[in-house]
Specification:
It is built from 9 helices and 13 strands. With 333 residues, it is α+β, with helices and mostly antiparallel strands. A 6-stranded mixed beta sheet has the order 5-4-6-3-1-13. A 4-stranded antiparallel beta sheet has the order 10-11-9-12. Strand 10 (294-300) and strand 11 (306-312) form a beta hairpin. It binds alpha-D-galactopyranose (GLA). The site of alpha-D-galactopyranose has 10 residues, from helix 4.
Length: 333
């Protein structure tokens, strides 16, 4: 009988740096202690999987050369896309257990892609794993997402968030102090497929046509964009890149009031300049910020629903998940 093996890939929460990755900007996510675990045995030429969190059984033949987004059940499309990306012929039979809700902005799909990549024997660097997983995400959904989710999940470091430069693809771990809580609160299900995510990517590209790469542009440059939407999108991205630098410095200096203020300011920018928040998320952010001991709150992930994230004094928030910074995708022995 073949050996039973296990891989685990965490979800991620982004602390600051939203909608900056696809213009080569800065992001500051952390891999969390919630994730996707796949237990499996090797199987020749097939992938056969069930999942505790989603109905249906997946059965695909390898090498997979079909259209991933027609695969049923739907969660299998990420798996089919990743196996196609890797050109896998050696498959597996197993079961998935996950405690990251799908469609919550905590990167359940990126976790699934990274987990299946490792289970299919991928043996490159975390960056290479994340790039294959990002291409798989594009194949499966058609949404032109950036590298943040997959790279923060592949390269996570226990006890740390990661400052990622999405142009140079460098990953710099930053300690997350243990005298604050990071709290994630689920607000509403959503999917980026069919959302305005792709429009935002196109709007940023329009801004770049006018003033060049947003990662290098200044607020003075933004003044030269005459179109209101492109101008506001560019303003968000430029301010958000600076917020990532300032947030990292505030956290390192123990200035949690300032770090929280930056998060809340980032939320306002996503709401007003980037138009990716919802009234329900805005209300939830305001409610959390009014609670004593909360330093700051923002929506996290692509938006249009999903989760909000707060930093606060330990124990100040009891409604939500206190998450801890965790190691990245890995084989479990
Ligand atoms: C989604 C995408 C990421 C990133 C965020 C917004 O999570 O997958 O690449 O663009 O939205 O910051």
């Amino acid at each position: 009988m073949s050996e039973t093996l296990r891989v685990h890939a965490p979800g991620r929460v982004n602390l600051i740096g939203e909608h900056t990755d696809y213009t080569g900007g800065l992001v500051f996510p952390m891999a969390i202690d919630r994730g996707t675990t796949l237990t499996y045995t090797a199987a020749d030429g097939v992938i056969e999987l069930t999942s505790d969190g989603a109905p249906g059984a997946l059965s695909i033949s390898l090498p997979f050369d079909g259209e991933p987004n027609t695969v049923e059940p739907h969660w299998g499309s990420y798996i089919a896309a990743m196996s196609a990306e890797l050109g896998a012929t050696q498959g597996l039979r197993g079961h998935i257990v996950s405690d990251i809700p799908a469609g919550a902005g905590l990167s359940s799909s990126a976790a699934l892609e990274c987990a299946i990549g490792l289970a299919l024997g991928f043996d490159g660097t975390p960056l290479e794993l994340s790039q294959a997983a990002q291409r798989a995400e594009h194949r499966a959904t058609g949404v032109p997402t950036g590298i943040m989710d997959q790279l923060s999940i592949a390269a996570g470091v226990a006890g740390h968030a990661t400052l990622i430069d999405c142009h140079g693809l460098s990953v710099t771990p930053h300690v997350v102090p243990d005298d604050i809580d990071v709290v994630v609160k689920f607000i509403a299900h959503r999917t980026l497929e069919g959302s305005e995510y792709a429009d935002r990517v196109a709007e940023c590209a329009r801004a770049e046509d006018k003033i060049g790469p947003l990662r290098l542009a200044t607020l003075d440059d933004v003044g030269r964009i005459t179109e209101d939407i492109a101008r506001r999108r560019a303003r968000h991205v430029i301010n958000e890149n600076q917020r990532v630098r300032d947030f990292a410095a505030a956290l390192a200096g123990g200035d949690y009031v300032e770090a929280g203020r930056i998060m809340t300011e980032g939320h306002a920018s996503l709401r007003d300049d980037f138009d990716v928040s919802t009234p329900q998320m805005d209300d939830a952010v305001d409610r959390l910020n009014a609670i004593p001991g909360v330093f700051g709150t923002r929506m996290t992930g692509g938006g249009f629903g999903g989760c909000i994230v707060a930093i606060c004094q330990p124990g100040a928030l009891t409604d939500g998940w206190v998450v801890s910074p965790s190691a990245g995708a890995r084989r479990v022995h």
